[in-house]
Write a structure and sequence with these properties.
- The termini are close together.
- The protein contains four helices and nine strands, in the order βββββββαααββα.
- The chain has one domain.
- It has about 150 residues and is α+β, with helices and mostly antiparallel strands.
Length: about 150
């Protein structure tokens, strides 16, 4: 499954990917300190150290295992998380102006959104990013599936 959104640091490291699944838009962010998963911006699970927090409440099950109810292929998406078919995009990020901290590539619109780490400067990029993600949300609330769809 190809991502429709890829976030890349100035150093060329992928930190965010967004996927269109049968359950809606799955946004995954990975760092050395935490993992964050959001499905249609309704179900958000964050793993920090050994704790999984679902919509603000700690849960016993791991975020990935919880989200398997909605997205069967989540482990495959994670296994290929740091891979990007667009090597040119990764290399070009390293050549950007030093003020740019990271970019988010919106594949469907072929737009690169720059982020400099200043709230006022980044507000338009955040708005465009939010609107882009919302286009892929399912109209109905995400429900667990009974049979594999992916």
């Amino acid at each position: 499954m190809e991502p429709v959104l890829v976030g890349i640091t100035r150093e060329g490291k992928i930190f965010e990917k967004g996927f269109v699944t049968s359950a809606g838009f799955l946004d995954i962010q990975l760092s050395s300190e935490y993992s964050s998963f959001s499905l249609n911006d309704q179900i958000t699970c964050v793993k920090i150290k050994n704790k999984s927090i679902l919509n603000g409440d700690e849960i016993e099950v791991d975020c990935v295992n919880f989200l398997k109810r909605y997205v069967n292929c989540i482990e495959d998406l994670l296994n290929n998380f740091y891979h990007c078919n667009n090597k040119e995009l990764i290399e070009n990020v390293k050549l950007l102006n030093e003020k740019i901290k990271y970019i988010v590539y919106l594949k469907e619109d072929e737009i690169i959104l720059p982020f400099v780490g200043e709230e006022e400067m980044d507000s338009l990029s955040f708005k465009i990013l939010r609107d882009y993600k919302e286009r892929f949300y399912k109209v109905k609330e995400a429900k667990p599936h009974d049979s594999p769809r992916m």
